[in-house]
Specification:
heterodimer, A: mainly beta, 0% helix, B: mainly beta
Chain lengths: 114, 114
């Protein structure tokens, strides 16, 4: 079965700095792509960015960008110019099949400090 | 356009009781997935409903059951509650028509079993 690994349980970052969150997968090819979600303390899972496995370029959505390296089986999230409101849990996830259910990593807690 | 809604937001039950959680999908979505998220962990897939039938199921006992109605809303039922069932239960909706089958999450129901 596919496994998603996030090795950073928690990170502190100063406001306005960039932060990179690590995510690796163990399948030969994440055929159905990779997602990143943000989960504030309220609990709702908020979609941030998606990378299709066969996309030619790395995905970007505003301050979020995805560094997708197939050879390393990694899909790291980069948050630029961090804001206090970015403090949350961040999850990497991938569908193991075409029906859309998601396999999640354990998450990384990000705390942005002034 | 309302997003995914869930009810109730919080619930307290005692061991052995039964509970029903409800979810209304985002407008235009026909697929509902349920996830269990224990404290400090990533969400775990419980099952997915499409066309009123359970299409996929994760590694959860038969005490967890569900239903999807003709209007695509869904219920999650848990019988014979255990202390370990205490978690945030997330509902996500999606549509097979989306090119990347993105899942939109509701705010969740926090279940506490005493």
């Amino acid at each position: 079965a596919q496994k998603i690994t996030q090795t950073q349980p928690g990170m502190f970052v100063q406001e306005k700095e960039a932060v990179t969150l690590d995510c690796t997968y163990d399948t030969s090819d994440p055929s159905y792509g990779l997602f990143w979600y943000k989960q504030p303390s309220s609990g709702e899972m908020i979609f941030l960015i998606y990378q299709g496995s066969y996309d030619q370029q790395n995905a970007t959505e505003g301050r979020y960008s995805l560094n997708f390296q197939k050879a390393r089986k990694s899909a790291n999230l980069v948050i630029s110019a961090s804001q206090l409101g970015d403090s949350a849990m961040y999850f990497c996830a991938s569908p193991p099949d075409s029906w859309g259910k998601l396999q999640f990593g354990a998450g990384t807690q990000v705390v942005v400090t002034p | 356009d309302a997003g995914v809604t869930q009810s109730p937001t919080h619930l307290i039950k005692t061991r052995g009781q039964q509970v029903t959680l409800r979810c209304s999908p985002k407008s235009g979505h026909d697929t509902v997935s349920w996830y269990q998220q224990a404290l400090g962990q990533g969400p775990q897939f419980i099952f997915q409903y499409y066309e009123e039938e359970e299409r996929q199921r994760g590694n959860f006992p038969d005490r967890f059951s569900g239903h999807q109605f003709p209007n695509y809303s869904s219920e999650l039922n848990v019988n014979a509650l255990l202390l370990g069932d205490s978690a945030l239960y997330l509902c996500a909706s999606s549509s097979g028509q989306l090119p990347r089958n993105e899942q939109f999450f509701g705010p969740g129901t926090r279940l506490t079993v005493l």
